[in-house]
Amino acid sequence: MFNFMSKTITPLYFRGYLYLWIGMVAVGIATMMQMTARGYLAYELTNSASKLTYVNVAFAFPMLSLSLFGGALSDRLDKQKIIQIGQFSAAFLAFIIAALIFSDYINWLHLLTVSFVQGGIWAFMVPSRHAFIAELVPGKNLNSAIALNSAGFNVSNLIAPAVAGLIYGLAGPGYVYTIIGGLALMGVFFTFIIKPEMRQSNDIPDNNQSEKKEILSEIKIGLIYIYNEKLLFSLLIASLIFSLLAEPFRFLLPIFVKDIYLRGPEAMGLLTTLMGLGSVIASIIIAGIDANKRGLIWIIGGFITGGCLLALAISDSYVISMIVMVFMGASDSIRRTLSMSIMMEKTRPDLRGRIMSIYMLNWGLIPLGALPAGIVADIIGAQSTIGILSILLLISSALVLITQKELRTVN
User: Fold this and answer.
1) Distance between CA 211 and CA 227 in Å, rounded?
2) % of the chain surpassing 90 pLDDT
3) Best exposed site among 167, 240, 291, 380 by fewest CB in 10 Å?
4) Model-level pTM?
């Protein structure tokens, strides 16, 4: 047990990574608070599943169109500065929404607009943040660092939704957004205090010694690289399919809480918190174990997610949904943590930013599943919609298990 815990927290002994991790947790709490408050507020303002979905997936369009540029820039520019600018911009937008709520000018189009802008910010910030991890820890600790990064974000998922739901219910969404802005500024501070001497020498490309290419050429290099790497390409496509089928549930959750379980924002916050609990447990386990059979475990995560969605589609019980959410969070963490870990470890160091930006297309393409799901939910109901997606996800997981031997056997 001691060796397990020691291996789990080893990356935190490196101060640069520790500061990045703390800042990430602060921004993660802000992000999850915002998702909880924004979803419930949007549904309160519109009482429409389709408009709720529009607000929740608006971020994906700029992420889809800009993430490749963000990845190329992260391989070219200082990743630390890109992260700082992104975190400051997130704080500014949160304070704008808070001001609109307090002045009683808020409407769902404001939420839609800010969601869209934030997608552009994340398109540049996220590839830099993931690639920056490799500059702050030795290569042998990279898998644990990535898993610990996911654990930190999942701790945010554990705490933030319940806090956001409680504050929303007691004081209103304006105070939630004010706290969100303050947490984002906290992230700016901790990223700022990372000094150059805290970076590790391993895997840092010498950009000054290489001729700068046009940014489109650099993007093309990344695309060709991942296409030619069979393992990475298979993982990318399978991740995309799983995301298209699993992620719409997150955006339809307010409908389950308000119309099926007949409860308020506090109940939605608790469900999201329980999902975070499962995510934290899974992330900590992954961080402390040896990298073995990661591909098979990743596929099993798809089966678990499909089973959880099927249970939610069948049951009207809030208590059952609380139990299912723990397993839902665990399976989500398994898929996200292991896919990023495999991607980072199997990618050339000088291409990590670009490859992570290509992986981010999974998030940018979420509307291909979420938007139709929201429209269909208005017609046949949220539970029937999630039931269809769960069956498709179980079938997809089985096909990946049977056909993708290299992915299934990767360690």
Assistant:
1) 24
2) 26
3) 380
4) 0.71
